[in-house]
């Protein structure tokens, strides 16, 4: 897993920097929520979280593990994606449950 160090503060007259570890999502060996995927880039669904009802609803829309999904656009809290040759609009909350 890759980490990025984030500078939190600089102390006056002291060159010590306070840092913290921050998880960085990468395509190599890691996953990220669909909401963080770039537009126009096909992604493979790695995991779908949420309740059984949520997972079934997403499956009915075509979101299945191993399937391909492409973010077309995001606007006003919704994510428009291409999945199984169809365009589907889902909420940001639903898109956060889809890991690619």
Automatic annotation (TrEMBL):
InterPro entries, per the entry: Fe-transptr_FeoA-like, FeoA-like, FeoA_core_dom, Transcriptional_repressor_C
Query: Ferrous iron transporter FeoA-like domain location, by residue?
Result: 32-100
* Signal peptide location: none
The question of whether Nucleotide-binding is a record keyword is answered with no
Q: Name one GO molecular function term.
A: transition metal ion binding
Q: Does the keyword Iron apply?
A: yes
The alphabetized UniProt keywords are: Iron
A single Pfam family, by name? FeoA
Top-level taxon of the source organism: Bacteria
* UniProt protein name: FeoA domain protein
The organism encoding this protein is: Oribacterium sinus F0268
């Amino acid at each position: 897993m890759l980490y990025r160090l984030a500078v939190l503060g600089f102390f006056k007259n002291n060159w010590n920097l306070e840092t913290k570890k921050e998880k960085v999502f990468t395509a190599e060996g890691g996953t990220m929520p669909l909401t963080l995927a770039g537009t126009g880039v096909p992604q493979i669904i790695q995991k779908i979280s949420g309740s059984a009802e949520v997972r079934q609803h997403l499956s009915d829309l075509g979101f299945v593990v191993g399937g391909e999904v492409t973010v077309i656009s995001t606007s006003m809290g919704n994510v428009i994606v291409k999945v199984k040759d169809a365009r589907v609009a889902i909420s940001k909350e639903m898109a956060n449950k889809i890991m690619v």
